[in-house]
């Protein structure tokens, strides 16, 4: 078959392109830059949620929204360049409140969830194993495990939720099932399989001899906490400015203690400086350069971060030299 004469090429190409949509076909050569970009291209932006700004709204929701009608009383942390459920492109975050005497009723879902306790005390029961909640705890609810939360104290308990919900925009297989009663039958867990208290994590961080220490939470057999979400804790000694490092992962950071700032240089946007203090939460897009600064000259600062590295690693989406 001969080639089209040069003078008729544009007309023929126009006819080709105009006929493709009706066949549900598209020319890759016109979208190659978008499909295979020169740099990673996260949609999420670096953003900070001030706890002092969010807390009044959360407390007001606690007064106006009954637990039994809400099921989960949560203010979602929605990235300003995206829509719910995206805090980053792959991680969902939210602030949840349970009032004294309340029970967040038992259910289970495909999504994996981790929770970092910000304030107060209470309990979570997972598959019949009841665990106390204290400030600084990491609590897991694995896929398709019955779980409920409660507060038997005299003050609200508040935590940061972190789930892999954005992944289900593509793999649309997430769903939930409610239990027939508000609480799934449970007994105290000894030891608590899905609870990671803060005290031993802090001890590991404090025992290091470096200005910026990182501890990765692991299961007893040394694996990440899930196949999609990992969690790490970081200690910045007084006056520390960390090296600027670049990571393929996105992060949902929470300041447990201290004050400082984080300089974020995303691969496809402008440099951002996020100034944080204890209980603030901030999002860092994938492939950003990150540098933390502890503002205190006398006290360390502690950060906890949820990341998507297990998900990227299992799918082979981390550049080999960064594994």
Explain what this protein looks like in three dimensions.
There is one protein chain. The chain has six helices and 22 strands. The chain has 323 residues and is an alpha+beta fold. The strands form four sheets. Strands 1-20-17-22-15-14 form a six-stranded antiparallel β-sheet. β6 and β7 (129-133) form a beta hairpin. The mean pLDDT is 95. This is Gentisate 1,2-dioxygenase. InterPro entries: Cupin_2, GDO-like, RmlC-like_jellyroll, RmlC_Cupin_sf. GO terms for molecular function: dioxygenase activity. Keywords: Dioxygenase, Oxidoreductase.
Instruction: Characterize the overall form.
Output: globular
What's the total number of strands?
Answer: 22
The quaternary organization reads as single chain
- Indicate the mean pLDDT: 95
Helix content: 10-25%
β content, as a range? 25-35%
Query: Whole-number radius of gyration?
Result: 23 Å
Q: Number of DSSP helices? A: 6
The biggest sheet amounts to:
6 strands, antiparallel
Pfam families: Cupin_2
Organism: Parathielavia appendiculata
Keywords: Dioxygenase, Oxidoreductase
Domain Cupin type-2: 95-161
List the helices and strands and how they pair.
Blueprint: H1 6-19, H2 32-35, E1 47-49, H3 51-64, H4 67-70, E2 74-77, E3 92-98, E4 103-109, E5 113-119, E6 122-126, E7 129-133, E8 138-141, E9 147-150, E10 157-163, E11 176-178, E12 187-188, E13 195-196, H5 198-206, E14 212-216, E15 230-236, E16 245-246, E17 251-257, E18 259-265, E19 272-277, E20 281-284, E21 289-294, E22 301-307, H6 309-314
Parallel strand pairs: 7-12
Antiparallel strand pairs: 1-20, 2-3, 3-10, 4-9, 4-11, 5-8, 5-10, 6-7, 6-9, 8-13, 14-15, 15-22, 16-21, 17-20, 17-22, 18-19, 18-21
């Amino acid at each position: 078959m001969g080639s089209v004469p040069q003078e008729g090429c544009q007309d023929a190409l126009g006819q080709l392109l105009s006929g493709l949509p009706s066949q549900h076909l598209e020319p890759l050569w016109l979208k190659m830059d978008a499909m295979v970009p020169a740099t990673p291209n996260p949609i999420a932006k670096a953003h900070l949620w001030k706890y002092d700004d969010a807390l009044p709204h959360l407390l007001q929701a606690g007064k106006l929204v009954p637990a039994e009608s809400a099921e989960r009383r949560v203010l979602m942390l929605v990235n300003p360049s995206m829509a719910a459920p995206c805090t980053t492109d792959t991680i969902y975050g939210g602030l949840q409140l349970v009032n004294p005497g309340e029970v967040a009723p038992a259910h289970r879902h495909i999504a994996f969830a981790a929770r970092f306790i910000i304030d107060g005390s209470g309990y979570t029961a997972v598959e019949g194993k009841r665990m106390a909640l204290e400030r600084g705890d990491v609590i897991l609810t694995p896929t398709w495990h019955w779980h409920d939360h409660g507060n038997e104290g005299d003050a609200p308990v508040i935590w940061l939720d972190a789930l892999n919900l954005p992944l289900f925009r593509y793999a649309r297989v997430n769903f939930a099932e409610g239990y027939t009663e508000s609480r799934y039958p449970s007994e105290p867990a000894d030891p608590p399989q899905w609870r990671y208290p803060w005290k031993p994590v802090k001890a590991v961080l404090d025992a290091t001899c470096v200005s910026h220490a990182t501890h990765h939470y692991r299961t007893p057999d040394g694996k990440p906490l899930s196949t999609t979400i990992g969690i790490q804790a970081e200690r910045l000694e007084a006056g520390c400015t960390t090296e600027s490092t670049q990571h393929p992962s996105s992060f949902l950071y929470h300041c447990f203690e201290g004050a400082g700032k984080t300089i974020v240089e995303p691969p496809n946007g402008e440099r951002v400086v996020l100034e944080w203090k204890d209980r603030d939460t901030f999002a860092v897009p994938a492939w950003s350069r990150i540098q933390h600064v502890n503002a205190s000259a006398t006290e360390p600062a502690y950060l906890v971060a949820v990341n998507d590295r297990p998900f990227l690693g299992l799918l082979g989406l981390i550049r080999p030299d960064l594994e």
